[in-house]
What we know:
- By secondary structure, the chain is of the alpha+beta class.
- It folds into two domains: 1-48 and 55-99 and 257-273 and 281-340, no CATH class; 112-255 and 344-380, L,D-transpeptidase catalytic domain-like (Beta Barrel), CATH 2.40.440.
- The protein is 27% helix and 23% strand.
- The relative contact order is 0.18.
Amino acid sequence: MTARRAALLLPLLVLGGCAALDDLWAPAVPLNERPVEEPLDPNTFLIEAPGQGVVGEPQIVFASDSDTLSDLARAYGLGYDEIVAANPGVDPWLPGAGTPILLPTQYVLPDVQRRGVILNIATKRLFFFPQAVDGEPREVKTYPIGIGRVGWETPLGETAVVAKARDPQWFVPATVRREHAEMGNPLPAVVPPGPDNPLGNRVLKLDMPGYLIHGTNSPYGVGMRVSHGCVRLYPENIERLYELVDIGETVTIINEPFQFGYRGDVLYFEAHASLEDDELGPDVRLAALLDAQVDANGAPLNDHLRRYVGEVAADPQGIPVGIFELDPDEYMARARVVQNTVETDPDAPTLTEVREMMEEIEAEIAAEKEGSAANPPEGS
């Protein structure tokens, strides 16, 4: 236990007795001694109690010699930025055989009305709440998403799905065509259906002119800020969502990098890096959230807990942490070790090709940061 943790815990343990101290100092079971289990369903979770605000569990998988973090992210229902943030210091291109990879597959549910589709652009994640069935636990579906780059922000607010299409054509906005022409990569006015269409094979059109939820022909960008404002999903995920969502379905778009949620008596705090163009900024958002949060007895969080939450927020890894333990690594003690389910795809791009695609995306993002002020938000 670190000295910082001990200092934070002492005021809470004065009346707690030796049993509490024994529990806190109990060593976690080493990873190689934990049973290897089947992984969780990557997209479907149950809400089994009215006040439940957290679903899923953290998982750990051991990488093979050829796995990349992109491979592991897709296999376990995660986006690229999510898995990178949860594994600081790990080489995303070649973690290495036997490297334990933390899968941040536990999620605090958005603190808004649970209906329809909810997009949290700060966490780069979509939640869908199907209609509840009497007498059965409620389900929530969740998928990683790619969102708009700086200068092409995905708008906030409430909207609805107004149309659906399979194998769509992409009518390329003039601003996008101009951008690509300036980069020496011109686009036609209309991109037909097929492997070169960045919309993929499914589209949900929103009641916001120019904005879509769609698939992609570049799945390695899912979970990043890569689009011209639209929301993109892995091909397999948009196919599932397309069948679940009807025309008229409500879509709520929020920007909440910090979230609290209860599961039983445990209060979890989940922190993500704020979007760099967020007008409020992380300090303002965190202060407002802390002022509104109460403990299980309805009392405001004490100074020790507020200070600890601030420390977690300063190093955002996107993993719900039980704050009453005052231990940023507590999730490692409860993480499930699971089987590696990454399958070799003979048609998949090589590691070199994937790296080139990711570097191209990053170069485009960097170029747009230098001159994005004139770009209006429309596109794919």
